[in-house]
Amino acid sequence: MPMRLGIDTGGTFTDLVLLGNGEGRVHKVASTPEDPLAAILQGVAELCPEGLEGVEIIHGTTVGTNAFLTRRGARVVLVATQGFEDVLFIGRQTRGELFSLTPRRSPEVLPRERVVGVRERVLADGRVLTPLTAAEIQRIYREVAARHPQAVAVALLHSYVNPEHEVRLGAALASLGVPVSLSSGVLPEFREFERTSATVLNAYLGPVLGRYLEAWRREMPHTPLFIQHSGGGFLPAREAAAWGLATLAHRFAGLVQPLRPRFYPSAFICVNLRLYS
Length: 277
Hints:
This is Hydantoinase/oxoprolinase N-terminal domain-containing protein. With 277 residues, this protein is of the alpha/beta class. Helix content is 32%, strand content 21%.
């Protein structure tokens, strides 16, 4: 079994724990929020001066969390079933200040003008009421491209039962050269607000995490890297950028499931983020 180096980046400190061969070593360095990787490289050099041969890294990062909290994620365009473009903005009608005459809303992740409605309709039992035509796919492609996205989220009505329309749109939009998140893959469950929110957030955070992991690969190209996700396990770094949402609450999971074997995020820890409601 290879030695494992656990690295957790926080706002104040970056913590490192090396386990294997019957021993353990710990180290702590000051974090570098503007460039989290700088503190990691410093800590690795100090804890492992002999190098990282035979070591795999398990990393918990707040890069995605910080991007969400500071609203520095990707420029996302959402494709939704026509007539349901406002699902995110209507939300669940929950109010943190029920009797306030001047309620405050959290800054939007996605403005309304970057939502595109598509003419299609799938019923709750999976039957197609309004087919998705080739001409409509071409129109959506042009509409999305005109909004210059850095990532695209596709969340169509009842796609958790029948994802065909989402898959076809995703295949066409992939030629834009930006990441495309499909709700039928991110959170294939009923309830439109929650599924759409999850898909938009996944698209919003994916490019940020992707850039971070690309910088990591340039610095340590030969060291196996796994990213801790919100289900408590680990994702191979080469796949983590496609699951930006999965890293959002990784610290809560890590507290209760330390050193659990790695697995893929078939489910996410649910957190009330009050994005739009």
